[in-house]
Amino acid sequence: MNEHLANFFADKRAHVAALSPSASELLDGVSDLTMRGGKRLRCLVLYAGFRAAGGASDPGKVLDLAAAIELLQSYFLIQDDWMDDDAERRGGPAVHAAFGARRGDAKLGASLAILASDLAAGFAFELLHRGATATTGTRTRAVLDTFTQMHTEVVCGQQLDLLEHLEVARTHDLKTGSYTVRGPLRLGALMGSADPTQLDALERFGRPIGVAFQLRDDLLGTFGDPRLTGKPAGHDLREGKNTLLVSEARKLLDPTSWARVEVVLGSSTASAEALEVATGLLESSGARARVEAHLAALVAEAEQALTAAPLAPEGVDMLRQLLRKLVLRDR
User: Domain range for residue 317?
Assistant: First the structure.
């Protein structure tokens, strides 16, 4: 996948430079972020869906679609980092931060980052159309519809997240589950010529895993080892994220204890001691245990969906491996 993406960016570089030499800066912002790292989990999910539907072992048929998802993620991440005022991503500067530092102007840096994200989105849809032509007829339309629906769901989920919507599970399903698991699974399955029964089985597998992936992210964002996650301890509390952990703690804690959590929520200046107290309360209240129990129930639900599912054995094995990679990770 990295080679495929690198070749795509190399092809685009001359084209963008011919339009405007300055536009190379935007392309560099997108390519630097995309190639810097990332787990490529969505590519693996897409390929597992392809194999589960009986697709051939050669991934060539789905490379463009997998690359499209990576570019879609870059588009989302650039904007998400700016909205959350996060200065780092994947071990390096966020795109808006890099542009702002280079230009000596934070507002201009943010504006350039938005343009870079627009470029990434355009690239994603270009790769989508290229990939969709690897199938025919109604399958092509279904692939296009799935990708655009995935995009719409993530945008709506991000709005709910910004508004700190109290339906946390709904926010997770739209913002994360849609383009992390459900969308890539369906895209891969469609490229593998899945029948309706197979698509239904993959949907029943993907929906709980998409939510479980976000719950694991929330647990790591609060309790994870900074040496592994690359984020400081209590990162999500400082960011004021309305996670299920926070939602459960709000129900479980008495007003005095809740106030000790609330005081650090969204506070970039909260002391290490205050963060440690708040994190401890999330655990001692039982909020962490509730989230972990919910995550375990979601994993069991997904595993049950694979039992006797009419899917190719090789694909089912890949899905089981991905399940562990997505929800039992430590970073």
Answer: 196-331
Burial of 269 (0-12, 13-18, 19+ CB in 10 A): exposed
pLDDT at 266: 86
Domain ends where: 194, 211, 230? 194
**Same domain for 317 and 180?**
no
Asked if 278 contacts 264 with a C-beta cutoff of 8 angstroms, the reply is: yes
pLDDT, position 169: 78
Element (H, E) at 89: strand 88-89
Two tokens, residue 65: 């679609």
Looking at the structure, tell me whether residues 50 and 182 fall in a common domain: yes
DSSP state of 175: I
| Claim to verify: residue 168 and residue 29 sit in the same structural domain | yes
Q: Assign 3-class secondary structure to 2-45.
A: HHHHHHHHHHHHHHHHHHCHHHHHHHHHHHHHHHCCCCCHHHHH
User: Which positions of the chain have pLDDT values less than 50?
Assistant: none
Phi, psi at 89, each rounded to 5°: -155, 130
The predicted pLDDT at position 281 comes to: 94
Q: How far apart are CA 238 and CA 246, in angstroms?
A: 12
* Helix, strand, coil fractions of the chain, as percent rounded to 5: 80, 0, 20
Same domain, 75 and 60: yes
Of 153, 179, 194, the position where a domain reaches its end is 194
Q: What is the pLDDT of residue 91?
A: 81
Name residue 273's amino acid: E
pLDDT score of 185: 95
What gap in Å lies between CA 189 and CA 151, rounded to an integer? 18
Cα 93 to chain centroid distance, Å, stands at 18
